[in-house]
Amino acid sequence: MLLAEEMNWEQALYFWKSIRPSAILPRINAVTRRIAMASTLALVALTVIASLVRSGLIATQNQEAAAHLVPVEANAETLVYLQVAWRHGDRTPASPVPFSPASSWDEGLGELTRKGIAQQYRLGKWLRARYGRWLGNRFDRSEVFVRSSDYNRTIMSAQANMAGLFPPTKSEMWDDVLPWQPVPVHTVPRAMDKELYEDISCPTANAEFSTLWRSEVVTRMETENRGFIEFLKENSGIPNFEFRQLWMVFDNLFCMLQHNDTHKWPSWVNASVFDRIYKLYDASSRLKYHTDLLRRLRGGPLLKEIIERFEAKVKGRLGDKPKLYAYSAV
């Protein structure tokens, strides 16, 4: 995951403008000025869903790095509101391929693994170490709201994260041997989730993406890598393999790499082959947000919601109670 916690306001605005949700930029600037003028309001922590701008590999690397960082305790005297979002922990492949059949993954396809559960639990403990004094020891239902996209892996990631963030105090224990308490995780159907489901039906975005996929950008990418694409076609075993299916090869190889104690790459894959697949996947996955229109339609709704919640907190519409709003996504 990517942390934007220590940004100054100029850096924060540059980040927002790089995504360019033009309809809300004037409001972002207004909120920024209000927050900058408030002497008791510190820059809140914001963890950006890495898949909005980068590939799963970068997301996982940053998530692992964040979970192993020595947390610096937040200033409980100045912090007033926290919004945080994380990508799910390590999972199984989303779609099977001949060299990695569905039967080889006990959890099923696209599901959180034990490693992914442990990652999220550690991340929750990291958040506890950083924000625990400010959040308090007890889980307060009126202070915390957790929202997940409608996938098993993201809902389970949220549950594991909350287990690390809110271990029960003695008075909250309900079982003598299980140091865990349930924390509500809210979700909405994917067909309605324009904030966290990046592939929600949007005719305008779909048309823009289809046009982009037929553009010179993609044609050049295919031409420059024609020989390598043929190599993948011959070895992957995917029938009628084409460039659009590169993500399936990368996804399976990456999941196998993350679980290499039980899954091994096929003989035609080595570090240099994987590196080239990753670079191609990374470049092609960026196409989802390649134009201003795609960034606005696919990333804008979430940014808009985050900014509006900041604005509501600044103006006092949220009241004093709410402290943490968490997103578990992708």
UniProtKB/TrEMBL annotation:
Gene3D superfamilies: Phosphoglycerate mutase-like. InterPro entries: His_Pase_clade-2 (IPR000560), His_PPase_superfam (IPR029033), Histidine_acid_phosphatase (IPR050645). GO terms for molecular function: phosphatase activity. Belongs to the histidine acid phosphatase family. This is Lysosomal acid phosphatase. It comes from Trichostrongylus colubriformis (Black scour worm). The lineage of its organism: Eukaryota, Metazoa, Ecdysozoa, Nematoda, Chromadorea.
